[in-house]
Amino acid sequence: MQPKNSLFDTHCHIHSVDYALPITEVDAHTTEAGVDYVVCVGCDAADSERAVNFVAKRLNNWASVGQHPHEAQYGMEPLKKLRELVEQDQDNKIVAIGECGLDYFYGHSPKEEQEMALRYQIELALEYDLPLIFHVREAFDDFWPIFDSYQGIRGVLHSFTDSSANLSKAIARGLYIGVNGIMTFTKIPEQLEVAKQIPHDRLVLETDSPFLTPVPLRGKVNEPAHVLLVARFLSELRQIPLQEVAQQTTANARQLFSL
Q1: Distance, CA of 14 to CA of 108 (rounded, Å)
Q2: What is the pLDDT of residues 95-106, one digit of tens each?
Q3: Among the four 77, 217, 220, 224, which has the fewest Cβ within 10 Å?
Q4: Which residues are CB-contacts of 28 (< 8 A; sequence separation ≥ 6)?
């Protein structure tokens, strides 16, 4: 009998008010797939509070509180709420700040306000010795100078699909690299090459559920159980056993979040 794979979904949104599946069903699938650990990631102040409340009594579930760059247009008050959530966390259920970063693909918020929100969250994370979950899309030229203006940042580049050059810059700065279902359906060979290049000790798995459902379940709602499909895909892509992918990525995630 093969040992059970113990997997870690480092980035999901199952706490969201409009999540499309019953949570009892999600939990059953998660257990069946061997996904033992989950981080629910906040995207704004209200969503972060929902994440914290959602994981409060759930074993091996934790929260990250943050303001997505799309939400930076709403100013300082939501950011202050993130600080309140961290200050009030008596049970160590908040394990990261984010998702935060820069997103120039959609441009929902002005670049200056995105930078302000990013810097606030970096400083909050450093103050409380928490890692950051970074969302960076078509903005690395501005992101790296901001990152490098601080010392001691720990964190992960969420949903990484960028270049080998930016992968090298991330690894040189000690960041982890989050991979999700995008890699199972990408049509861009360079993205698959980058997925092969991620150092074994820097790779973590995620679903970003309910988004980015991996092959062969495209068109269905994503959920933490599907991190198993990402692990299987990477096992084949990187030509290493599934159990090795599971063990290493779970160990990496526990190191990332100090669990």
Answers
A1: 23
A2: 999 999 999 998
A3: 77
A4: none
